[in-house]
Amino acid sequence: MGEFELIRRYFLPVAEQRGHPDLLLALGDDCAIQRVPADQDLVFSVDTQVEGRHFPQHYRSEFTAWRALASAASDLAAMGATPVCFTLALTLPEADESWLEGFGRGLAQAASRFGLALAGGDTTRGPLTISIQVHGTVPRGQGLMRSGAKANDLVAVSGTLGDAGAALDFLDVQEPDDDERALLERYHHPLPRLELGQALRGFASACIDISDGLIADLGHILERSGVGAILNPELLPLSTPLHRCAGERAPRLALSSGDDYELCVTISEKHWGALPEGVKNQLTVVGRIDRGQGVRFEGGALADSGVRGFDHFGSIS
Ligand code: ADP
Ligand code: MG
Hints:
Elements: H1 3-17, E1 23-25, E2 33-34, E3 40-50, H2 61-79, E4 82-92, H3 97-114, E5 117-125, E6 129-139, E7 154-158, H4 163-167, H5 178-188, H6 194-199, E8 206-210, H7 214-225, E9 228-231, H8 240-246, H9 250-256, E10 262-267, H10 269-274, H11 277-280, E11 283-290, E12 294-297, H12 301-304
Parallel strand pairs: 4-5, 9-12
Antiparallel strand pairs: 1-2, 3-6, 4-6, 7-10, 7-11, 8-10, 9-11
Helix pairs in contact: 1-3, 2-3, 5-8
Bound molecules: adenosine-5'-diphosphate (ADP) and magnesium ion (MG).
Adenosine-5'-diphosphate (ADP) binds at residues 7, 11, 27-30, 88, 90, 118, 120-123.
């Protein structure tokens, strides 16, 4: 199968399943053409996933595609952007038809779920690597950035944390129980918080998606904003399956494991009070911004549960 046959068979259908009114020209020409409405800013980002580094070797291609697009879409969520389209640069060791069939299927499912039209790409031979560039839009000047956190803002996170990280322990388990299955689902099919990000425009002072763990990613907000934060680990939102599978390790996973693709936002008390109930319900306040440096912890609860090790994250600011 040649390069063009491969594109026609596995990627053209993904482009054809859904377009976007702003995507004037997609796959098949030298470039795609996207029209950006005059009242919008274009928000874009590229994300690369390498086999053995970002996903396990011999990982199911369907999940590989979903996770690659989810991880890229999550950056749009963190900016409060509305998804428009993406390009796919795929490097493959060989044209394995069953692998490609699964990859195309996972890509189509994720593209339709996240509202992203496939605009084009590039296909080359080499070690398995997936690069995805995503494009989205925000009303002019309304993109959520990392740099706006202010002392006294609340720190809040969406959903529950640590689930995908816990799943790494049983990726190879043949017959997972219900709890393990729930955690595995969060690893295989992360759901970027696109609607939530958009709903936070005009409210959040800063926002980031949690791909490397709360401490590391909140650390990026703190650094860009020139502030510090105090977290209360007792407030961390932990799922029941995580409690049951990880026990005492649960808070540590919630603080330091990545791959959940939840959002971490800072928001003033005033804006928190003005948030619609349906948006507030998706968030849990876990701490507060202050004039200090880096991420620090409140209360003695951590000391007794063997989580003292978090101190070494103190240097991440
Ligand atoms: P060019 O040589 O002009 O860069 P290519 O031969 O690389 O064009 O690609 C031909 C067309 O197929 C282009 O429109 C490109 O966007 C699209 N394409 C190539 N690879 C992919 C892919 N992996 N996914 C989606 N579209 C792709
Ligand atoms: Mg090319």
